[in-house]
Amino acid sequence: MIAEVLLDPFQYEFMTRALAATVIASFVCALLSCWLVLIGWSLMGDAVAHAVLPGVVLAYLLELPFALGAVVFGLLAVTLIGAVREGGRIKEDAAIGIVFTTLFALGLVLISVTPSHTDLNHIVFGNLLGVSRADLIQIAVLGAVVTVVALLKRRDLTLYAFDPTHAWAIGLNPRLLGALLLGLLAFTAVTALQVVGIVLVVAMLITPGATAYLLTDRFSTMLVLAPTVSVLSGVTGLYVSYYWDTSPGGMIVLVQGAVFAAVYLFGPRRGIVTRLFRNGERGGTTRVRRRSAMSTDQAGTTRPLP
């Protein structure tokens, strides 16, 4: 019975492709999310994910691969954010908000005026069950590139995340490392487009890293925990969406959010409920010790408490 439940969805080829795309995108997004959470680039991830929309539409118009247009506009968004931030009194959060909303609005306008037999709205909300063989190859190639570069440069990127000044002092270029991380972010956003769409990409880029951050103090462990949690959540969400007939992209993100909530509340070390329970036990122990001490002082000898 269990085997039937597990294998039944994959009698359909589109579900097999959806599973492969989910695993790849979940792993890559979670890997990069570890650095994004440490640096505090949650809004930057949201900006790049939204800014790629006009690139995807223009790629469709020019009959080019969607990934090419998305990567170009992702890098363009990063460049524009840096230019606005460094060119005057505008702070980084304001620059990010201005650039990504403007580019996202441009993408929506292009969709509205583009004559198309293809529903381009699936770019915004994802189309996991419509992943073709060519799309899967594209996702796999981009995912492999991001994974290899991130793992090869993990020490430099980690030092940049913790202490850019120290990275500069030992001969590394923080500006170049930041640009590399932003480039990887653009590629990763494209990888997850087909899975959850532009609107929910930021969840896959932040939630796994935040969950792992609550579970460990070691970054090397975090790099293992985040992809593990993300992939398991992705597969679980895909199964639930199949049997409940819901949106697969939305269900994947919902499962990730539920896992984060569980860790946030009941985590073994930092969970809110766990800490309240632990503090309650400590308080009870302290009260017993104080009462025992008072009994000893009053009677001169230790006597059992009522």
UniProtKB/TrEMBL annotation:
Q: Where is this region: Disordered?
A: 283-306
List the keywords (alphabetical): Membrane, Transmembrane, Transmembrane helix, Transport
Give a yes or no for keyword Transmembrane in this entry. Answer: yes
Q: Which domain of life is it from?
A: Bacteria
Query: Which InterPro entries does this UniProt record tie to the protein?
Result: ABC_BtuC-like (IPR037294), ABC_TroCD (IPR001626)
Annotated membrane-spanning segments are 18-44, 64-84, 96-116, 136-152, 172-190, 196-215, 222-244, 250-267
Per the record, membrane topology reads: Multi-pass membrane protein
Q: Where in the cell is it found?
A: Cell membrane; Membrane
Instruction: Please state which protein family the record places this protein in.
Output: Belongs to the ABC-3 integral membrane protein family.
Q: What is this protein called?
A: Metal ABC transporter permease
* Species of origin: Gordonia caeni
